[in-house]
Amino acid sequence: YYTTTGVLLCYLLMQYLSSWAVIWRLMRGLCIVCGITACYTLFCHFLDRDYLWEEVQRQFNPYYHGNQRATGPFGNAVFAGAYLSLCFPFTLWILTYTEGLRKRLFYGILSGTVLMTLAVSQSRGGWLAAGIALIVIVIVFLRRMWIRLCRDQKCAALVMVIAAFPVVIGIMQGMGLARV
């Protein structure tokens, strides 16, 4: 089954994703679906009631004691975190390449909502994947900015990063994140 659907999916992607306009439309749709999922997940988490999975969890899971972790339509916080962490880079990509203030504001709010939903899912794997995606996007964005800067601005930015490094390490140690 999975082999067949994988081959079929590759064929469909190669057949129908023939231009950047089609890819852009697909990414916008993916981001909208991810945003709806994130909003639903936050809604259920803050109301402390999961409308899709709570009855099933209460009946079949003896360890379920309420909705402490955001599960969304997946019924599992790890699956919700994995889905959101897979979609998060696409929301950032759409945000960086969208033109127009209203669209950028919309995709910025959407990215923030996805990030907040990832936080309340309490899925460490989702956090790690979203953090790596955020670092990669920031590096790509800074690389584009770095090319446009003149020599003096590049030196000032480098000195600022070197000076900020011990401060960041000190903050991480104060939060208890530097322990091995």
How would you portray this structure in words?
It contains seven helices and no strands. The chain is mostly helical. It starts with a helix and ends in a 6-residue tail after the last helix. The protein is globular, with a radius of gyration of 20 Å.
The DSSP helix count reads 7
Counting helices, strands and paired strands, the structural category is: mainly alpha
The major pleated sheet works out as:
none
Q: How many E-type strands?
A: 0
Query: What is the 3D form?
Result: globular
* Cα Rg: 20 Å
> Helical content, roughly?
over 70%
What is the string of SSEs from the N terminus onward? HHHHHHH
Proportion of residues in β-strands? under 5%
Rounded mean pLDDT is: 79
* Poorly predicted ranges: none
